[in-house]
Amino acid sequence: MINDDLIAKRKRGRSIGGIILILIGTSLLLQRLDLDIPSWIFSWQMILIVIGLALGFKHNFRGGPWFAMITVGGIFLAGEIMHWPYNTAKFIWPVVLIAIGVTALFKRHNEHMFSDARYFAKDRTSSDISSDMDTINISSCFSGLEKVVTSKNFKGGYVSNVFGGTDLNLMQADINGTVTLEVTAIFGGCEIVVPANWTVKVDISTIMGGVEEKRPAALLGSIDKDKVLLLKGSCIFGGVEIKSFA
């Protein structure tokens, strides 16, 4: 079942995150000891690669954000180590665009990794798509997507935004117990509209990004503690908004 899979991935993600933090902490400690450690170990490129690896392991290397981050970080890290006779800074955005483009093409040809590719191909700008599926797998890359979920047994899923945005409307959906929705926002945003009686718990890691709860307090008086939407994932230079309407 998807909840069991999400729980397993969540535990694995925490373990990987802990190991990465230990490695970073150990490296910083060694640096403070004035040992001869290459400067690139502490560069922004390496940080980008580490974050990309963490995202990849956490999501079983599904989706594209991890690939784009590792590609960009790897190219510029190679330039620093090999001392290329170029100003690599001016190549950042072209490389970013190429990496994301390659990722988008790869995902469109792999239905297992991107089950909603047919929606992405139909309208690259904005669309109002209704789905009665119990799980979702959405990706938005340099595009906007509006999706309405009507399942009365919604079990969660995945939403990935890279330089794009998703408006996810769950007002007509229903849940039983706790369901997990994995959200990744990198230079992008995600707006999630949920019924006023749902309990929403947030466990999203943010780096120069944020998660904002915009549900009016007046609508939260009828919260059902047996209906819990758990938001997991990462927000890097992006934003996630949670809303409810009467």
Automatic annotation (TrEMBL):
The lineage of its organism: Bacteria, Pseudomonadati, Bacteroidota, Chitinophagia, Chitinophagales. Residues 17-111 form the LiaF transmembrane domain. This is Cell wall-active antibiotics response protein. Keywords: Membrane, Transmembrane, Transmembrane helix. It holds the Pfam family LiaF-TM. The chain crosses the membrane at residues 12-31, 37-57, 64-85, 91-106.
